[in-house]
Amino acid sequence: MKVNILVLILLAVSIHVSAQKFATKIGHIKFYSKAPLEKIEAHNMQVNAAFDQQSGFFVFKVLMKSFEFEKALMQEHFNENYIESDKFPNATFLGKVTNFNEINFSKDGTYKVNVEGKLTLHGITKEVKETGTFQPDKGKIFGKAIFNLLLSDYNIDVPGAVANNISKTVEITVEVVLEKINP
Asked: How many structural domains is the chain composed of?
């Protein structure tokens, strides 16, 4: 069985051996686009993510072909015409929770998090800053963020023939349940 590359990256950049590290291979990303003529929604349950509690380092990777749509034709167009999944198979985020030191990971609750880093999608890497929540609960961290992406920022073109069917901005919801990976 191959070792997850995200876990290796996380371990390589860790400064302190005693730091708590968390990871998951079963996160959830929802893609949602609402335009005047059509609503498009897709779900992906194959999201790898890792977080280092000591440094705030946060990374995730998603296989683009793992998005599932209500209609097979939408899924085919998403992979072949827009995302070009054969050419750009993954989306990745490499960054940091900038206010991780404000979170009491030993106390259950919901904490606002600020995340900064580089999001790579469709072969384009952009600096992003987003907010979300971390919810420590019984040794796990439940993370959630909702944000919007402008398709043109990632060179994703919408042909004029379907311009009314696809919004220029898509809403992305990321949900992960991170579990400790070290004793």
From this structure: 1
